C-alpha cells in the first residue's frame, strides 16, 4: 500500500468505510436517504465504481473489496470530488451478503472481471457458483439486475452455465445469450490491457424473477 493509500484509511475511512460487524445494515441511515442500491463486488482499484457513482447520483453504491490498496485509491478519488453516494467494505463479499445486507435490498449487483482461477484444480474457488448466486438472489429486489463480465472465455462459459440453471434468475437478453457491452460499464485500465493481449470480453445480464 502506498503512503497515499494508507492516508486514505486514516483520513476517509470514517466517512466512506463500513466496518464489518455481522449485523444487518441500515443503509438509509448510512446514506442519509432512501434510494436504489447497487453493489459492486471486487471493485479492484475502484475506477469503474467511482465513475458510476459520479454519473449516477440518484442511486447509492456499495463496494466490497478485500485488497487494501484498491480501497485506499477509491476513497482518495471519492474524497477528491466530495462523493456522497458510496460506501465501501474491506471484507469478504460472501460474509457481507450473508450478514450485512437484508433480503430484497439491492437494485443491482455487479461482478466485473473476478479472479478466473484458471487452473482446473482452482475452478471451485470462482465466486460465481450455484450457492453464491442463490444467496445473491435472496438479497435482490424483484426485477433487480445482475451484471457479470469477464475476459476469460472458460469463465464466461462457466458463468453462463451457472446462471442459466439458477432458480430465481432469467437472462435479460435471451436464454443462453451473452449481452452487448452496456454503456454503463466503462472500459477500465484492466480491460484495455486485456484487449491489447487479445482477450475477448463477455457480459452477462440477468434479472431477478
UniProtKB/TrEMBL annotation:
Gene3D superfamilies assigned to the protein according to its UniProt record, in alphabetical order: Vaccinia Virus protein VP39 (3.40.50.150)
EC number(s) per entry: 2.1.1.33
Pathway assignment: tRNA modification; N(7)-methylguanine-tRNA biosynthesis
InterPro entries: SAM-dependent_MTases_sf, tRNA_(Gua-N-7)_MeTrfase_Trmb, tRNA_methyltr_TrmB_bact
Enzyme class (EC, first level): transferase
Pfam families, A to Z: Methyltransf_4
Catalytic activity annotation: guanosine(46) in tRNA + S-adenosyl-L-methionine = N(7)-methylguanosine(46) in tRNA + S-adenosyl-L-homocysteine
Molecular function GO labels: tRNA (guanine(46)-N7)-methyltransferase activity
Coiled coil: none
Region of interest called Interaction with RNA, as start-end residue ranges on this chain: 121-126
Entry keyword S-adenosyl-L-methionine: yes
Residue positions binding substrate: 119, 151, 188-191
Keywords, sorted A to Z: Methyltransferase, S-adenosyl-L-methionine, Transferase, tRNA processing
PROSITE patterns membership: SAM_MT_TRMB (PS51625)
Residue sites binding S-adenosyl-L-methionine per the record: 40, 65, 92, 115
PANTHER family: 3-DEOXY-D-MANNO-OCTULOSONIC-ACID TRANSFERASE/TRNA GUANINE-N 7 - -METHYLTRANSFERASE, PENTACOTRIPEPTIDE-REPEAT REGION OF PRORP DOMAIN-CONTAINING PROTEIN
Function in brief: Catalyzes the formation of N(7)-methylguanine at position 46 (m7G46) in tRNA.
UniProt family annotation: Belongs to the class I-like SAM-binding methyltransferase superfamily. TrmB family.
The protein's name: tRNA (guanine-N(7)-)-methyltransferase
Organism, as annotated: Fulvimonas yonginensis
Amino acid at each position: 500500500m502506498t503512503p497515499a493509500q494508507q492516508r486514505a484509511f486514516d483520513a476517509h475511512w470514517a466517512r466512506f468505510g463500513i466496518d464489518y460487524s455481522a449485523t444487518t445494515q441500515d443503509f438509509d441511515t448510512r446514506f442519509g436517504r432512501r434510494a436504489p442500491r447497487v453493489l459492486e463486488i471486487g471493485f479492484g482499484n475502484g475506477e469503474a465504481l467511482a465513475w458510476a457513482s459520479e454519473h449516477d447520483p440518484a442511486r447509492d453504491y456499495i463496494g466490497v473489496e478485500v485488497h487494501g490498496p484498491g480501497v485506499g485509491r477509491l476513497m482518495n478519488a471519492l474524497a477528491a470530488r466530495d462523493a456522497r453516494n458510496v460506501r465501501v467494505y474491506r471484507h469478504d463479499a460472501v460474509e457481507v451478503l450473508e450478514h450485512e445486507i437484508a433480503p430484497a435490498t439491492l437494485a443491482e449487483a455487479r461482478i466485473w472481471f473476478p479472479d478466473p482461477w484458471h487452473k482446473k484444480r482452482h475452478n471451485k474457488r470462482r465466486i460465481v457458483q450455484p450457492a453464491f448466486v442463490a444467496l445473491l438472489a435472496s438479497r435482490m429486489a424483484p426485477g433487480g439486475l445482475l451484471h457479470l463480465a469477464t475476459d476469460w472465455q472458460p469463465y464466461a462459459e462457466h458463468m453462463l452455465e451457472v446462471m442459466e440453471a439458477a432458480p430465481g434468475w432469467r437472462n435479460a437478453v435471451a436464454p443462453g445469450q451473452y449481452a452487448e457491452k452496456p454503456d454503463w460499464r466503462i472500459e477500465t485500465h484492466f480491460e484495455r490491457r486485456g484487449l491489447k493481449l487479445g482477450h475477448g470480453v463477455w457480459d452477462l445480464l440477468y434479472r431477478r424473477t
